[in-house]
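Q: Could you predict the 3D structure of Methionine ABC transporter ATPase?
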Amino acid sequence: MAAGLDLSSAIKQEHLDENLKNIIAVRSEDADKPFAKDIVEAVKSPAYRAVIDDPKNIYSAFQKPEWMTATP
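A: Sure. Here are the predicted C-alpha cells for Methionine ABC transporter ATPase:
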C-alpha cells in the first residue's frame, strides 16, 4: 500500500480471524458512557461504510467484520 501496490490484486490474501477485525475496546465500566456509544454509532454508520467500501480507497479490499457483510 505504501509502495503503491493494490491489495485487491494480490495472488493470495491472508484470512484474518473474526476476532482480529475492527477491535474497538473500552473499559467495561465505560461501556455505557456517551463516548463509547458514539464510537459504536460512528463505526456502524452509513458514512463509515461508504468510506470503507469506496473502491478509490485502499480499505475497500480489506476484509470486513461479519456484522458489516451480513445481510439484514
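Q: Anything worth pointing out?
A: The CA atoms of residues 10 and 61 lie 10 Å apart.
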